[in-house]
Amino acid sequence: MTRLTRHRDRLRAWIDQDRDELVRFLSRFVAIASPNPPGDTREAAQFLLDTLRAHGAPVEVRQMEPHLPNVVGSFAGARPGRHLVLNGHIDVFPAGPRESWTRDPWSGAVEDGKVHGRGVADMKCGTAASVWTFIYLHRLRAELGGRLTLTCVSDEETGGTRGSRFLVEQFPQEFLGDCCLNGEPSTPLTIRFGEKGTLRLVFEIDTPGAHAAYTHASRNAIRVAAALIGDLGELEAMTIPMSDSVRAAIERSRAAMDRALGAGAGAILDRITVSPGVIQGGLKINMLPGHCRVEVDMRLPPGSSQDQAMAAVSAIVARHPEARVTRIATHSSEPSVCDPEHPMIGILQATVTSLGREMPVPAVSLGATDAKFWRHRDTPAYVYGCTPNNMAKPDEWVAVDEYLHVVRSHAIAAATYLEPTE
Question: Structure pTM?
Answer without folding.
Answer: 0.94
